[in-house]
TrEMBL record:
The keyword Ion transport does not apply. It catalyses: (2R)-O-phospho-3-sulfolactate + H2O = (2R)-3-sulfolactate + phosphate. Its cofactor is Mg(2+). It comes from Metabacillus herbersteinensis. Keywords: Hydrolase, Magnesium. InterPro entries: ComB-like, ComB-like_sf. Its EC number is 3.1.3.71. The keyword Heme does not apply. This is Probable 2-phosphosulfolactate phosphatase. Pfam families: 2-ph_phosp (PF04029). Gene3D superfamilies: ComB-like. Belongs to the ComB family.
Protein backbone atom coordinates (compact mmCIF):
# COMPACT_ATOMS: atom_id res chain seq x y z
CA UNK A 1 0.00 0.00 0.00
CA UNK A 2 1.39 3.40 -0.98
CA UNK A 3 2.43 5.87 1.69
CA UNK A 4 1.53 9.55 1.67
CA UNK A 5 3.73 12.12 3.42
CA UNK A 6 3.26 15.88 3.82
CA UNK A 7 6.36 18.03 4.24
CA UNK A 8 5.32 21.29 5.85
CA UNK A 9 7.92 23.57 4.24
CA UNK A 10 10.56 23.36 1.54
CA UNK A 11 13.47 23.95 3.92
CA UNK A 12 13.14 20.47 5.44
CA UNK A 13 13.07 18.61 2.12
CA UNK A 14 15.78 15.96 1.80
CA UNK A 15 16.41 15.93 -1.93
CA UNK A 16 17.99 12.47 -2.00
CA UNK A 17 14.98 10.91 -0.27
CA UNK A 18 12.74 12.08 -3.09
CA UNK A 19 14.43 9.83 -5.63
CA UNK A 20 11.96 7.12 -6.55
CA UNK A 21 9.04 9.08 -5.09
CA UNK A 22 6.09 10.84 -6.68
CA UNK A 23 6.26 14.44 -5.46
CA UNK A 24 3.91 17.41 -5.58
CA UNK A 25 4.85 21.02 -4.88
CA UNK A 26 2.13 23.30 -3.51
CA UNK A 27 2.22 27.11 -3.24
CA UNK A 28 -1.41 28.17 -3.23
CA UNK A 29 -0.67 31.92 -2.85
CA UNK A 30 0.75 32.31 -5.53
CA UNK A 31 3.41 30.46 -7.55
CA UNK A 32 1.76 27.12 -8.30
CA UNK A 33 -1.62 28.76 -8.92
CA UNK A 34 0.07 31.18 -11.30
CA UNK A 35 1.79 28.32 -13.12
CA UNK A 36 -1.53 26.53 -13.64
CA UNK A 37 -3.17 29.70 -14.94
CA UNK A 38 -0.21 30.35 -17.24
CA UNK A 39 -0.61 26.92 -18.79
CA UNK A 40 -4.34 27.50 -19.13
CA UNK A 41 -3.63 30.73 -21.03
CA UNK A 42 -1.29 29.08 -23.55
CA UNK A 43 2.06 29.84 -21.92
CA UNK A 44 4.17 26.71 -22.37
CA UNK A 45 6.71 25.53 -21.44
CA UNK A 46 7.24 27.21 -18.09
CA UNK A 47 10.63 27.45 -16.45
CA UNK A 48 10.66 27.77 -12.65
CA UNK A 49 13.90 29.14 -11.24
CA UNK A 50 15.02 30.29 -7.80
CA UNK A 51 15.77 33.97 -8.41
CA UNK A 52 15.88 36.84 -10.87
CA UNK A 53 19.53 36.25 -11.80
CA UNK A 54 18.73 32.69 -12.85
CA UNK A 55 15.68 33.90 -14.75
CA UNK A 56 17.63 36.51 -16.71
CA UNK A 57 20.36 33.99 -17.53
CA UNK A 58 17.76 31.54 -18.83
CA UNK A 59 16.06 34.28 -20.84
CA UNK A 60 19.20 34.72 -22.95
CA UNK A 61 18.80 31.11 -24.12
CA UNK A 62 15.22 31.49 -25.36
CA UNK A 63 14.74 31.34 -29.13
CA UNK A 64 11.06 32.23 -29.13
CA UNK A 65 8.76 34.67 -27.31
CA UNK A 66 8.71 34.55 -23.51
CA UNK A 67 7.53 36.46 -20.46
CA UNK A 68 9.40 37.07 -17.21
CA UNK A 69 7.49 36.85 -13.94
CA UNK A 70 8.89 37.15 -10.45
CA UNK A 71 8.88 38.48 -6.93
CA UNK A 72 11.28 38.45 -4.02
CA UNK A 73 10.04 38.63 -0.43
CA UNK A 74 6.73 39.71 -1.91
CA UNK A 75 8.31 42.72 -3.63
CA UNK A 76 8.16 43.32 -7.36
CA UNK A 77 11.33 42.89 -9.45
CA UNK A 78 12.24 45.54 -12.00
CA UNK A 79 11.66 44.25 -15.51
CA UNK A 80 9.48 41.34 -14.32
CA UNK A 81 5.70 41.00 -14.33
CA UNK A 82 4.40 40.22 -10.84
CA UNK A 83 3.37 36.51 -10.67
CA UNK A 84 -0.26 37.37 -10.06
CA UNK A 85 -2.83 35.16 -11.86
CA UNK A 86 -5.15 38.18 -12.16
CA UNK A 87 -2.63 39.82 -14.49
CA UNK A 88 -2.23 36.91 -16.90
CA UNK A 89 -3.65 37.54 -20.35
CA UNK A 90 -4.32 34.90 -22.98
CA UNK A 91 -1.33 34.40 -25.27
CA UNK A 92 -2.29 34.38 -28.93
CA UNK A 93 0.77 32.28 -29.71
CA UNK A 94 2.39 29.60 -27.59
CA UNK A 95 4.75 31.60 -25.43
CA UNK A 96 7.17 30.32 -22.83
CA UNK A 97 7.28 31.78 -19.32
CA UNK A 98 10.12 32.09 -16.84
CA UNK A 99 9.03 32.51 -13.24
CA UNK A 100 10.94 33.01 -9.99
CA UNK A 101 9.57 33.41 -6.49
CA UNK A 102 10.54 33.39 -2.84
CA UNK A 103 8.91 30.05 -2.09
CA UNK A 104 7.15 28.04 -4.81
CA UNK A 105 9.80 27.98 -7.51
CA UNK A 106 12.51 27.27 -4.93
CA UNK A 107 10.46 24.32 -3.71
CA UNK A 108 10.18 23.03 -7.28
CA UNK A 109 13.95 23.22 -7.63
CA UNK A 110 14.44 21.26 -4.39
CA UNK A 111 11.99 18.57 -5.56
CA UNK A 112 13.51 18.14 -9.02
CA UNK A 113 15.07 14.75 -8.20
CA UNK A 114 11.70 13.08 -7.63
CA UNK A 115 10.68 10.24 -9.94
CA UNK A 116 7.76 12.38 -11.08
CA UNK A 117 6.95 15.92 -10.01
CA UNK A 118 3.57 17.64 -10.23
CA UNK A 119 2.62 21.24 -9.48
CA UNK A 120 -0.59 21.74 -7.52
CA UNK A 121 -2.91 24.27 -5.93
CA UNK A 122 -6.50 24.12 -4.70
CA UNK A 123 -7.55 25.06 -8.24
CA UNK A 124 -6.32 21.75 -9.70
CA UNK A 125 -5.41 19.49 -6.77
CA UNK A 126 -8.29 17.10 -7.50
CA UNK A 127 -6.74 16.29 -10.89
CA UNK A 128 -3.28 15.84 -9.36
CA UNK A 129 -4.75 13.34 -6.90
CA UNK A 130 -6.44 11.48 -9.75
CA UNK A 131 -3.18 11.27 -11.66
CA UNK A 132 -1.31 10.03 -8.59
CA UNK A 133 -3.96 7.39 -7.99
CA UNK A 134 -3.61 6.15 -11.57
CA UNK A 135 0.03 5.26 -11.01
CA UNK A 136 0.50 1.51 -10.70
CA UNK A 137 3.79 1.38 -8.81
CA UNK A 138 4.26 1.38 -5.04
CA UNK A 139 6.23 4.64 -4.84
CA UNK A 140 5.65 6.91 -1.87
CA UNK A 141 3.77 10.15 -2.47
CA UNK A 142 5.41 13.25 -1.00
CA UNK A 143 3.37 16.46 -0.84
CA UNK A 144 5.65 19.46 -0.37
CA UNK A 145 4.25 22.67 1.07
CA UNK A 146 6.40 25.56 -0.12
CA UNK A 147 5.88 27.52 3.08
CA UNK A 148 6.43 31.20 3.66
CA UNK A 149 10.13 32.09 3.67
CA UNK A 150 11.26 29.45 6.19
CA UNK A 151 7.87 29.36 7.95
CA UNK A 152 4.75 27.19 7.85
CA UNK A 153 1.93 28.30 5.51
CA UNK A 154 -1.67 27.44 6.27
CA UNK A 155 -2.81 27.69 2.65
CA UNK A 156 -0.20 25.22 1.37
CA UNK A 157 -1.11 22.76 4.13
CA UNK A 158 -4.75 23.01 3.05
CA UNK A 159 -3.66 22.36 -0.54
CA UNK A 160 -1.83 19.22 0.58
CA UNK A 161 -4.89 18.09 2.51
CA UNK A 162 -7.02 18.45 -0.61
CA UNK A 163 -4.86 15.89 -2.41
CA UNK A 164 -4.96 13.52 0.58
CA UNK A 165 -8.76 13.83 0.71
CA UNK A 166 -9.13 12.92 -2.97
CA UNK A 167 -6.65 10.06 -2.74
CA UNK A 168 -8.53 8.52 0.19
CA UNK A 169 -11.82 8.85 -1.70
CA UNK A 170 -10.33 6.69 -4.45
CA UNK A 171 -8.53 3.94 -2.52
CA UNK A 172 -6.46 2.94 0.47
CA UNK A 173 -3.24 4.68 1.45
CA UNK A 174 -1.00 4.75 4.49
CA UNK A 175 -1.04 8.30 5.82
CA UNK A 176 1.68 9.94 7.87
CA UNK A 177 0.62 12.02 10.87
CA UNK A 178 1.10 15.22 8.88
CA UNK A 179 -1.05 13.81 6.05
CA UNK A 180 -3.88 13.01 8.46
CA UNK A 181 -3.73 16.49 9.96
CA UNK A 182 -3.57 18.13 6.51
CA UNK A 183 -6.68 16.22 5.45
CA UNK A 184 -8.58 17.37 8.54
CA UNK A 185 -7.44 20.96 7.93
CA UNK A 186 -8.64 20.84 4.32
CA UNK A 187 -12.04 19.49 5.31
CA UNK A 188 -12.53 22.28 7.84
CA UNK A 189 -11.34 24.94 5.41
CA UNK A 190 -13.61 23.62 2.65
CA UNK A 191 -16.58 23.73 5.04
CA UNK A 192 -15.73 27.41 5.63
CA UNK A 193 -15.42 28.12 1.87
CA UNK A 194 -11.69 28.74 2.47
CA UNK A 195 -12.40 32.06 4.18
CA UNK A 196 -9.87 31.13 6.88
CA UNK A 197 -7.13 31.35 4.23
CA UNK A 198 -7.78 35.07 3.97
CA UNK A 199 -6.48 35.40 7.53
CA UNK A 200 -3.21 33.59 6.92
CA UNK A 201 0.23 35.20 6.96
CA UNK A 202 0.64 35.15 3.19
CA UNK A 203 -2.75 36.78 2.73
CA UNK A 204 -1.71 39.68 4.95
CA UNK A 205 1.50 40.08 2.94
CA UNK A 206 -0.35 40.09 -0.39
CA UNK A 207 -2.89 42.61 0.87
CA UNK A 208 -0.05 44.90 1.90
CA UNK A 209 1.12 44.83 -1.73
CA UNK A 210 -2.44 45.34 -3.09
CA UNK A 211 -2.80 41.82 -4.47
CA UNK A 212 -5.91 40.78 -2.52
CA UNK A 213 -7.83 40.00 -5.73
CA UNK A 214 -5.43 37.19 -6.60
CA UNK A 215 -6.43 35.28 -3.46
CA UNK A 216 -10.11 35.68 -4.27
CA UNK A 217 -9.44 34.40 -7.79
CA UNK A 218 -7.72 31.27 -6.46
CA UNK A 219 -10.51 30.53 -4.00
CA UNK A 220 -13.23 31.10 -6.60
CA UNK A 221 -11.50 28.63 -8.91
CA UNK A 222 -11.31 25.78 -6.38
CA UNK A 223 -11.15 22.59 -8.50
CA UNK A 224 -12.15 24.44 -11.68
CA UNK A 225 -8.85 24.60 -13.58
CA UNK A 226 -8.31 21.55 -15.78
CA UNK A 227 -4.53 21.63 -15.85
CA UNK A 228 -1.97 19.02 -14.72
CA UNK A 229 1.43 20.72 -14.60
CA UNK A 230 4.27 18.22 -14.64
CA UNK A 231 7.98 18.97 -14.34
CA UNK A 232 9.91 17.22 -17.09
CA UNK A 233 13.55 17.84 -17.91
CA UNK A 234 14.00 21.41 -16.77
CA UNK A 235 10.55 22.71 -17.64
CA UNK A 236 6.88 22.48 -16.72
CA UNK A 237 4.25 21.42 -19.25
CA UNK A 238 0.56 20.60 -19.13
CA UNK A 239 -0.14 16.85 -19.01
CA UNK A 240 -3.93 17.12 -18.75
CA UNK A 241 -4.52 15.72 -22.23
CA UNK A 242 -3.30 12.35 -20.95
CA UNK A 243 -5.68 12.30 -17.98
CA UNK A 244 -8.32 9.57 -17.88
CA UNK A 245 -11.56 9.09 -16.03
CA UNK A 246 -14.38 11.56 -15.61
CA UNK A 247 -12.06 14.52 -16.09
CA UNK A 248 -10.35 13.16 -19.19
Amino acid sequence: MRKVHVITQKEVVCEQKLEGCAAVVIDVFLATSTIAFLLKHNYEPIYAVKDSESALALATQQKGPYVLLGETQGESIEGFQYPDPCLIELSELQTSAIICSTNGTRAIEKAAKAKVLYISSIINGHLIAERLHEQTDDSSIVLICSGNDDRFSMEDFVGAGQIVEHLMSRGEYVLSDSSKLARDTYQKSLANSFQNLLDCETASLLRSFDFAESMDLVIRNHEKVEIIPVFTGNKIVNDYSKAVGSNG
